[in-house]
Design brief:
Blueprint lengths: L8 H13 L3 H14 L4 H8 L3 H14 L2 H4 L5 H9 L2 H10 L8 E5 L8 H14 L3 E4 L6 E2 L38 H7 L4 E2 L7 E4 L2 H6 L7 H8 L3 E5 L7 H9 L5 E7 L2 E8 L18 E5 L2 E7 H14 L12 H13 L2
Parallel strand pairs: 1-2, 1-6
Antiparallel strand pairs: 2-5, 3-7, 4-5, 6-10, 7-8, 9-10
Helix pairs in contact: 1-2, 2-3, 2-4, 3-4, 7-8, 12-13
Length: 353
């Protein structure tokens, strides 16, 4: 039975730190899967926990065995995903996107699974060509977690262990407008930026890439990183998930912020020095709990073995805000070691709500 064969003490500590507190939910998922494998969980059980194909979990294990922490960020795709993308036609993609009935004049923020696209230019052109043919304004996260640093001290209840940070400041990269988005973002933001009309906002961690959404990108400020989503929402925008679940849905973070949920301070390395980045969102691991409350507003379409899901930002934000109004701890994850969710719970208790 394939499994993570061995972990040193330092590797296990690093995996647990990534699972508990990494900013990217995809990295947390992969780190947890590797820990479960090391504990003896069969691949099938791990796949069931995260609703992915067992072959994909096997790829995660193979990558970890090859290069350890680098495997957490890789774009592993199962043989089934490779077969799906290589055989999928442009017409299939166009028809599937049209079936969701998102109005063509409404902006769309797209989240695509990191493993949904291959490395060939043909696959990239096919996927982007279909998106561009069906939708007008398109935006996608182009986040750069690799710019993040941790100072020696900072605000209290900020979900950061300043003495033992989970990241090494020496590994941080300077943010520049052409810095490659982090692997968990997938290839879509790179494809957008390769277009002659592709643009990018300038937040050193939470930038967005898009076409025909210049006003949304320009609205982003260091103190208001999710402002582009608000602009899309004001224009009747939609969220499109391609082969990925609600834990990757950045717009839920915007709804949390509107509901008054605690935000965080983070820091990024730039040519001008380390910058404070306020209003950084919390953990997304609990967002799967939103699937049931929004089910009547979600449009779904099965594209071979890949699920497409779409919901208007208006409905998503309204339902999320209402959930948090009724229960200020709604959508927090159940990992007791998650620093961000525990910080939110402490803030809720402090406010007495």
């Amino acid at each position: 039975m394939k499994r993570v064969s061995s972990l040193s003490d330092s590797q296990e500590v690093k995996l647990r730190a990534f699972y508990d507190n990494h900013e990217a939910p995809q990295v947390r998922k992969r780190a947890h899967s590797l820990l479960l494998s090391h504990q003896g969980y069969p691949i099938k059980e791990i796949a069931d926990i995260y609703d992915v194909h067992p072959d994909l979990v096997a790829c995660w294990i193979d990558e970890w065995e090859k290069d350890n922490s680098l495997g957490l960020y890789g774009m592993a795709r199962s043989p089934i995903q490779r077969s799906l993308i290589s055989k999928m036609t442009y017409r299939e993609l166009v028809n599937a996107f049209r079936t969701l009935e998102i109005p063509a004049d409404k902006p769309v923020i797209v989240h695509a699974s990191p493993g949904i696209l291959g490395n060939t230019q043909g696959e990239k052109n096919k996927f982007w060509g279909a998106l561009d043919a069906v939708y007008g304004p398109i935006m996608a996260p182009a986040f750069t977690y690799q710019t993040m640093t941790v100072p020696g001290e900072g605000p209290e209840n900020n979900a950061v262990d300043y003495d033992n940070p989970p990241i090494d400041n020496g590994d941080a990269l300077f943010f520049t407008p052409d810095l490659q988005p982090s692997f968990p973002m997938g290839k879509l933001p790179e494809i957008i930026l390769d277009q002659p009309y592709g643009k990018r906002s300038r937040h050193p961690i939470l930038s967005f890439a898009g076409v025909r959404v210049e006003d949304a990108l320009e609205a982003q400020k260091l103190s208001d990183p999710l402002a582009p989503i608000e602009v899309l929402a004001d224009k009747g925008g939609w969220v499109l998930l391609v082969g990925i679940d609600q834990t990757a849905n950045t717009s839920i973070h915007h709804a949390e912020q509107l509901a008054g949920r605690k935000q965080f301070m983070r820091w990024a390395l730039t040519p001008a020095g380390s910058l404070e980045c306020p209003n950084f969102p919390g953990c997304a691991q609990g967002f799967s709990a939103l699937s049931q409350p929004i089910q009547y507003y979600v449009k779904k379409e099965k594209l071979r073995s890949t699920m497409l899901a779409a919901i208007s930002l208006e409905n998503l934000i309204r339902v999320t805000r209402e959930l948090i109004r009724k229960d200020p701890t709604a959508l927090l994850c159940e990992n007791g070691r998650c620093a961000r969710c525990e910080a939110v719970r402490r803030e809720v208790r402090r406010r007495g709500i």
